Amino acid sequence: MQLRDTSAPELARYIIGEYLGEGSTGTAFKVTDAVTGKHYVLKQISLESIGDEEKLRAKKEILVMNGVDHPNIVRFRESFSGTNSVNIVMEHCASTLEELIGRQQAEGGQPFPEDIIIEWMAELLCALAYLHSRSIVHRDLKTSNIFLTEKNHVKLGDFGVCTVLTSTSVAAHSMIGTPLYFSPEVCEGEDYDQRSDMWSLGVVFYEMCTLRHPFEAQHLPGLIQQILTKAVTPFNTGLDARFEAIVRGMLNKDPRDRPTAQDLIDNHLVVPVSHPSHPSQKPSRGRLIQQYYGPELAFSRERGTRLPPLD
User: Fold this and answer.
1) 79 and 154: one domain?
2) Is 9 helix (H, G, I), strand (E, B) or coil?
3) Where is the Protein kinase domain (predicted)?
């Protein structure tokens, strides 16, 4: 597949590589900076056949990506317009969590090691706490929107359907996202907020721990019925019981009883304060990158992101 709109002069800076896929808001290609040789992802959003709402989403995605700065969120590089498109250039990652889970299933279905699960949980919760502290609701958290670096760190990406809650809009209303990750309040067409993201991330964590979805059905009405009424199936994987306790809390049908990302960081996952994913770390971009790719990266094995005692 080829890039549809090549009219933007900024594209001359990039060598267009392999087609990566097509999502709800655009088509993605791997590109290489012609000068530095560094790889990026180019997401092209066609303006030919989309309405005003979709155009607004594209603008919002650019604004959100350009405004966030966290080691566990895919980094924005630049954006530019073509005759019939908007183009977003962002950090390239090695794979997605969805792909990794698929490979794990194909290789015998054994769960990931506990230390890896803990590290990924901590990184994703820190990223989500960062977004929520800025009143950003992602609205489409799923394994295909979670990316892995070559060093096996996870990053949230794809802000195409995110929303920013304001003082005059404290909840979202649209039924947006991916059905397998819909929260009960989204299924019922109710207002929702950051707590809906916590449900979706709980589904992701369930998949990380079990390599399966907590709710599945052959058709959408059946899936919605399961999400609304079915109890969460036990893990039965031999993992530490505290993993399941965390996930069950996130998959509470009543959003008022779900923990926030910051609650879990503070009370359930002990994240070293020196790690750059910790919300208390607010260094400049330069210092943050130095920490992220430096010795501090080995925190999960040397100092341990860990689960506290059950008591």
Assistant:
1) no
2) helix
3) 14-271
Confirm whether 140 is a catalytic residue: yes
| DSSP category for residue 124 | H
- In the predicted structure, residue 167 carries a pLDDT above the cut 70: no
pLDDT of 29 above 70 = yes
Provide the edge-to-edge strand list for the sheet that holds 39-46. Answer: 14-22, 27-33, 39-46, 85-91, 76-81
Q: Which amino acid is at 129?
A: A
Domains in the chain, number: 2
CB-CB contact of 155 with 127 (8 Å): yes
Measured from the Cβ of residue 113, the count of other Cβ atoms closer than 10 Å reads 10
Contact 158, 23 (CB under 8 A): yes
pLDDT of the residue at 27? 86
Q: Is the pLDDT of residue 39 over 50?
A: yes
Distance (Å, whole) CA 101 – CA 119: 16
pLDDT at residue 200 in the model: 94
Within a domain: 311? no
Q: How many CB atoms lie within 10 A of CB 125?
A: 28
Q: What CATH code is carried by the domain that includes residue 205? A: 1.10.510.10
Answer positive or negative: Cα dihedral of 22, 188, 173, 132.
Answer: negative
CA dihedral 198, 199, 200, 202 (to 10 degrees): 90
282: which 2 tokens?
Answer: 């607010």
Single out the residue of 69, 87, 138, 70 nearest to residue 78, CA to CA.
Answer: 87
Q: What is the 3-state secondary structure (H, E, C) of 189-219?
A: CCCECHHHHHHHHHHHHHHHHHCCCCCCCCC
- Kindly state the tokens that stand for 206: 């369930």
* H runs (alpha helix) in 17-74: 52-67
- Find out whether 43 is annotated in a ligand binding site: yes
DSSP type of residue 163: E
Catalytic residue among 33, 52, 69, 140: 140
55, 104: one domain: no
